[in-house]
Amino acid sequence: MTSEIDIDRFARHLVLKEIGGPGQQALARTHVAIIGAGGLGAPASLYLAAAGIGTISLIDADTVSVDNLQRQIIYRTGQIGTAKAKTAARALRALNPGTRVKPVVKAIDGENAKRLIGKADLVLDGCDNYETRYAVNAACLATGKPLISGAVGRWDGQVSIFNARPEAPCYRCWVPQTPPDAETCERVGVVGALTGVIGSMMALEAIKHICAAGQTLDGRIHLFDGLSMESRTVTLDKDPACPACSGQG
Length: 249
Known about the structure:
Blueprint: H1 11-14, H2 20-29, E1 31-35, H3 41-51, E2 55-59, H4 84-95, E3 100-104, H5 113-117, E4 122-125, H6 130-143, E5 147-153, E6 156-162, H7 171-174, H8 185-188, H9 192-211, E7 220-225, E8 230-235
Parallel strand pairs: 1-2, 1-4, 2-3, 4-5
Antiparallel strand pairs: 5-6, 6-7, 7-8
């Protein structure tokens, strides 16, 4: 089996006891769906393609705009106006031709979410609105898929993995309803490098989950303050009154 692995490309993984040959093969067998090819999805997708994920579905209906370039460094100035999913897919294939990349130029919603993520083994959500987050969470619950969720704003970020076990919390155990004071990065701003930090953490959690390495953020939320360079991790239990997963598990 190890003869099928690109030994030179993944040499740094293969010497890690937590990954090695079996873990690299697991990465190659995995299909990851990434919701949003923007600030979080772009760095996460780059690191997952580089890690040797077998298939990546990039789901994003947006096009590249000049204001994206401050943080979405998978894109270039000359690509303004192009479809993010297709443009990012080309960058990922150039990075690792062994990863199959499927661009999906569609907006994901409650009607199509289950279908769009249906063949994936793991879902990463880096979108920027609660309606989409709730639709993705519901689809992951319905199809039994783990969900890695990241969020950023100003100088702060957070990341967690939900639905990793039947008894694990889901995203709406953490955010049951849209906050009345919900803010967008467009309105409050975000430092570009922060998206790289949180997007990379999402990719790291995905690799750990796939390889069963270490302790993931299953049942925990990691909160990062970029201004103070301080982090804390809080425990999250399944909410018996959760509007999405109550009665499951």
